[in-house]
Amino acid sequence: MRTDKLAIGLGKTVAVAVILVWSLFPIAFLVLSSFKPGQDIFAVPPKLVFSPTVQHYVELWNGWGVFFSGLLNSTIITAGATIIAITTSTAAGYVYSRYSSRMLDASVMFLIIVRLIPPIVVTLPLFPIINAIGLNDTHIVLMVLYATFFVSLGTVLMRTFIDQIPRELDEAAQIDGAKRLTILRRVIVPLAAPGILAVAVFVVVFAWNEFLFAFIFTATKAKTAPLVISEMIGSIDGVDWGVLFAASTVQLIPVLLFVIFMNRYLVAGLTAGATKG
Amino acid sequence: MASLRLAGLKKSFGAVDIIKGVNLEIKDGEFVVFVGPSGCGKSTLLRMIAGLEDISGGELYIGDRLCNEVQPRERGIAMVFQSYALYPHMTVYDNMGFGLSLNKTPKPELDARVREAARILKMEHLLERKPSQLSGGQRQRVAIGRAIVRKPGVFLFDEPLSNLDAALRVDMRMELAKLHRDLGATMIYVTHDQIEAMTLADKIVVLDGGLVQQVGSPMELYKNPANKFVAGFIGAPKMNFLPVKVQSVAGDTAMVASDTMSPIPVKGRGFSVGDPAWLGIRPQFLKPGPPTDGEGALRGRIALVERLGTETIIAVDTAENERVVAAIPVDVELAFGDAAEFQFNPQAAHLFH
After folding, report:
1. In Å, how far are A247, B47, B80 from B71, measured between CA atoms?
2. A86–chain B nearest CA distance, Å
3. What share of chain B is helix, strand, coil (3-state, %, to 5)?
4. Long-range contact pairs involving A68-74 (C-beta distance under 8 Å, separation at least 24)
5. Taking chain A, what is the end-to-end CA distance rounded to the nearest angstrom?
6. Inter-chain contact A175–B72, Cβ cutoff 8 Å?
7. Which of B74, B83, B87, B154 to mutate to test the interface with A (most CBs of A within 10 A)?
8. B87 in A contact zone (CB under 8 Å)
9. Which of B349, B313, B317, B315 is nearest to B332 (CA)?
C-alpha cells in the first residue's frame, strides 16, 4: 500500500516537472537570452553562467522606437477590445440568462457554431469593406474584430455566471424601482464580476498576442507590437537575436503579470457552473 | 395604504391555466392570507399583484387604479421573498435604502427612514453588515425592513417564514402580527402553513387548482367550511372524513348513516335521499367513551398514539378500514392495539358532497 502511494506520488511529481519544463523552457530561454551577450546566445553547449547585460534593451530603446509605439497601439487596442467584449458579453449573457424565446434558444447554438468557423474565413472578405469605409490601419477595426471573436464565448460564459444569480434579486430590484439597465448595472454586474474578469483575461491575452488580423488590417499607424517583432526577424540588416529576445520579453511581461494577477478569476471562469445543482 | 380589487383575474402559461378567474376584495389595512397546497396558484396570484407576472385576463385594481399594465415600481407595493432576495454585495443599510436611492430621495430623508425601519425591527447594530454575516432570522428582518422603508400601500409576503426554523418562525409570526398592528398597512401573505394563516389573517383566501375555494375570517373557515377541501385544509390535525349515505332529508338537516354507524342528524344543504356524502368530524370533537342518546359513535383499534403534552393524538382504524384521528385529553390512557370507542356531537359534524 505504502509503496503504491509513494509510486503514485513520484509519478505525479515527475509528470508535473515534465509539463513545467515543457512549457517554461521556451520562456526561460527567451528571457535569459535577452540578458546574454550576443555571442553567448546560441553557444554550444548553452551557457548557463554568463555575465548579464542590458545591452539588448538599450539597443531596442535606441533603434526600435517603432516597437514602443507598437506596444502603445497594442495597449490601446487590447483595452478597447476588452471593454467592448465584456460590455457586450455581459449584456448579452444577461438577456440569455433572464429571457427565453425560441429565437434566443436557437441563437445560442449559432453563437457556438460561429466560434468554430476559422476566423480568417470571415475576416478576409471584410478587408475591402473596411478599406472602403476608411477604417484600415485604425485602432477601432482591431478592437471590434478582437472583441467580436470573444463575444460568443464571453456571452456563453457570462450567461453561466448570471444564471447563478437568483432571479429574485432582479425581481426585488424591480419592485425597489430599478429599470432593466439599473438592475444590470447595480445588481448583476457587481455579482458577476468574477465572470467579467474571466472574460477580460481571455480577451486581453488574445488581443495582446494576436498577429494575423493585425497583419491584415494595420500598416503603420495602428501597428501592434507582435508585428514589429516579426519585422525584426525580416530585418534587412540580418536578425539581431538579442534585440529580438529583449523585445519579446518586454512584450511578454505585461500579459504574464496580468494573467498571474487574474489567475483565480480565470479558474473561476473556466469552472463556472461545474458545481451548480 | 390601499385597498385592492381582483376581478376575474386569470393567468395561463401557454395552454395551462394557473389562475382560473379570481374575484376578491381586499380592504384597506386588512391582513389577507392566501393559503393552499403547493401548485394551487397562490404565489402566482401574489406575483400578479406585484407585477412580476403578466395578467392573462381580468382586472387588478390597487386603490382605484387599474394596474394590469403598470410596472411593479409604480404599484406602490413592497415584497418580501421566501429566499429574502437581499443584495449580497450591499450592506444592510444599502439593501434597505436601495429603493429610496433609486427614486432619488434626499440623503437625510433616506437615512432617517432606514434608521427608523431598523429601530422598528431592532437591528440598528446590523446596518453595516453584509447579508452573508447575518443569521436566517436577521436576513428575514432586513428583507422586511427593505419593505417598510419604502412605505408601500401594500405589503406582499411570499412564504416569508418557510426558511426559518420552527422556534424562530413562531417569534417572527408574532412580530409580523405586531408590525401589522403598528403600521396598519394592507398586507397580503402567501403560505401553505394553515397555522400561519389562522394566526395572522383578518381574512383567509383558500385556493386550490387556481380557484378561490372560500374567503372568510379564520374562525368562519374553521366553523363553516364551504367544501370538503377547505374543511380538510383548515385545522390541525386534519378533519376526518367518513363515507356515509343520506337516508332522509328534513329542511337543512340530513339523516346519514353507514354500515357501522347508526343514523345521526347532520346539517347540510342540497342533499337528496340515497346520495353518497362525506361526514366531516374534527379530531377535537371526538371524545373517548360510549355514545349517549343522539350522539354519533365510532369504534376501532388504535393504530398510533402521539403524546404532544397538551393533548394526545390518536389514530384509530375502523372496521371499514377508515383511518380516523382524534385529539384527546392527556389524562386518557389509551395504548397501541387497544379497542376504543369514541362519541361525537352531530351538531359539530359537517356534511360534504
Report:
1. 58, 12, 17
2. 20
3. 30, 35, 35
4. A69/A223, A70/A223, A70/A224, A70/A225, A70/A226, A70/A227, A70/A228, A71/A225, A71/A250, A71/A251, A73/A139, A73/A218, A73/A221, A73/A222, A73/A223, A73/A224, A73/A225, A74/A207, A74/A208, A74/A224, A74/A225, A74/A226, A74/A251
5. 36
6. yes
7. B87
8. yes
9. B313
Encoded amino acid at B19, one letter? I
Q: What is the pLDDT along chain A (277 residues), one digit of tens a residue?
A: 678 888 999 999 999 999 999 988 888 888 888 888 877 788 777 777 788 888 889 988 988 888 999 999 999 999 999 999 999 999 999 999 999 888 888 888 888 888 888 878 877 888 888 889 988 899 999 999 999 888 988 999 999 999 999 999 999 999 999 999 999 999 999 999 888 988 998 899 999 999 988 998 888 888 999 998 888 887 767 778 888 899 999 999 888 888 888 877 666 655 554 443 3
Q: For chain A, how many residues are written?
A: 277
Cell 430590484 identifies what position? A173
A with B: how many residue pairs have Cβ under 8 Å apart? 54
Hey, is the C-beta of A182 within 8 angstroms of any chain B C-beta? yes
C-alpha distance from B78 to closest chain A C-alpha (Å): 6
**CB-based contact B164:B175 (threshold 8 Å):** no
Q: Give residue B17's identity as a one-letter amino acid code.
A: D
Q: Answer yes or no: are the C-beta atoms of A146 and A77 closer than 8 Å.
A: yes
Q: How far is CA A162 from CA A91, B86, B264, in A?
A: 10, 16, 64
SS3 A232: helix
In terms of Cα–Cα distance, which of B227, B265, B225 is closest to B247? B265
| B229 contact partners, CB below 8 Å, separation of at least 6 | B206, B208, B213
Beta bridge partners of B261: B258
Q: What is the dihedral of CA B218, B220, B222, B226, to 10 degrees?
A: -120
A187 touches chain B (CB under 8 A): yes
Q: Which residue of A has its CA nearest to B155?
A: A175
Q: How far is B73 from chain A (nearest CA, A)?
A: 4
CB contact under 8 A, A175 and B102: no
Nearest-by-Cβ selection for A168 from B83, B98, B102 = B83
Nearest chain B residue to A192 by CA: give it.
B89
What residue ranges define each of the domains in chain B, with the CATH number in brackets? 4-233 (3.40.50.300), 240-352 (2.40.50.140)
Whether residues A190 and B89 touch (CB distance < 8 A) is answered with: yes
- The distance of B195 to chain A (nearest Cα, Å) reads 26
> pTM, whole model, 2 decimals?
0.84
> What is the Cα–Cα distance from A270 to B153, expressed in whole angstroms?
46
Angle, vertex CA B29, rays to CA B23 and CA B34, nearest 5: 45
Q: Does A212 touch chain B (CB under 8 A)?
A: no
Torsions phi, psi for B320 (to 5 deg): -85, 15
> Does any CB of chain B come closer than 8 Å to the CB of residue A4?
no
Domains, chain A? 55-270 (1.10.3720.10)
Q: Cell digits for B2?
A: 390601499
Burial class, A43, CB count within 10 angstroms (exposed 0-12 / middle 13-18 / buried 19+): exposed
- Gyration radius of chain A's alpha carbons: 23
CA B199 to chain centre: 9
ipTM of the prediction: 0.85
